[in-house]
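Standup notes
- DV: blocked on the single-chain target, sequence here:
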Amino acid sequence: MTTTDRLFTVLVFAIAVVGLSARPYLQHGRPHGGLKNHGLGAASAGLQVAPTQYFTQRVDHYNPQDTSTFQQRYWVNSTNFRNSTNGISPVFIMLGGEGEENPLWVAQGFMVEQARKYNALCILVEHRFYGASQPFQDLSTEHLALLSSQQALADFASFVSAMKVQWNLSDDLNPWVVFGGSYSGAMAAWFRLKYPQLVVGAVAASAPVLAETNFSQYFEVVSQSLKWTKNGDQCNTRVGTATKTITNMLLTPGGRSQLGTLFSICNNGLANPSNDDTYNFMASLAGNFAGVVQYTFDNNKAGQEFTVDWLCETMNTGGDDTDNLLKQYAAINSALLKSAGNNCLDINYTSSIVNLTNSTIVVEKGDRQWFYQTCTEFGYFQSSDSTAQPFGNMFPGPFWTQQCNQVFGDMGDLSEFPNVPWTNSYYGGRNVTSSNIVFPNGGLDPWKALSILHDVSSSEPLVLVPGTAHCSAIYPSSSKDSQDLIDARNTISDLLGTWISASESPASHLTTLEIVLISLASVLGAVVATMAVYAFFVTRQPQRSDASLSVNSYVPMNSAL
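- DV (later): unblocked, structure below
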């Protein structure tokens, strides 16, 4: 390695470290632990966590000539499982999403609470290319070609089929229900859609089933959620005023210097920023509000401390002068930085690109993998292109799509990804034509804009939960849960019972004696029926007066004359 190469390596490493240590609250709309795992919370005292197990999975399900495999992580909780011939014991499986999986999903949460009620086996499976379920030794773009929702669904199908054999499960007594939240919620719905023979139903919480490149509706819902609070209109107006003030201050060196101090910008990053740096800055400030709204009132410390109410109480403190509005806007940024353990906010665009370009596997990270999936399959880019939101217009759609080319190489015309319309065609978008899928959505959740907005059919209902946010229905229950959330979970629980019981055949829980008696009755019934048919034909024969008449002279009723 030359001296120049070593210096470049050190520079790249330094930029990456800065980017990791002070990243925005949300990156591309995703918290750094993954969309689904954010509100799961910490393990309660004395809770036993299931040991890690591994399943040998194919790397490429669509290439019969490629027989290579990798080890896919999964976890099982059989505490409530009652596998016998007398009664139903279902299997509940949580699909992994775009991050390292947390085995707490089979120890606490809505799925486990329902497992106690229905005597279910609980399983969690990690998604390929995330966490420790890695098909390759790095995350090169060449290898990421095998990262897709289709390959992941095939993984889950292969896993379910193998577990049915391993656990000696029957379709009648052990029906499977799939669970998921956010991206994995969409995967749950799509799994029921594409593999209906393997699962009897799906709980698809906060599932963005509609792929959309320019997801400008995201910040529209953030704005609506701010308005939902007490004095929400005032809050929304103040955010808009502060945003305009910041936008104007970015035009002058003095203004940028003041903003750099107010918002604790790393490395004096606003002294001479590129346009992309300023776009990053504005997206990060909007992301502060979006991240809080997205997980408001979740049953963890952050979800209870940083809520949509807290945002608007902060913004509505003090007068309407611009100095005060900037102060309150900056106070929100400072509180979130402190909560994340960061001293400053990194807005350097180059460092964010370097971070996403790094192909080294880090089990705890999923940023590069998820960005690849958004660039190739889903879009989901939260832009400022809508005027129905108070966060300005400085992070438009092209700001996000240009990053796909910069991170993964030339991907062609990104004005509309080829795979976004294909994804909607393949899965159906909001028209998920299936059955036995429930779509719980939080009324405050920005992702609801890409989920189901009304019942797809009588067997695919929307369960809208007012006053809650992302994946709230599948998190652990709490004494602080609203009545709306309690009612929603009860509705989902009833649906689970309906799906599970419908899979049961009439004889699935009969005793051995009952089965023997029914079998004997069937045999006796067949004998009686045979005798009746015989008697019928005998009585229909012609009466013969001459006993010496040849039998060959008798013509059967159905013979040709």
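- Follow-up: The mean pLDDT is 86.
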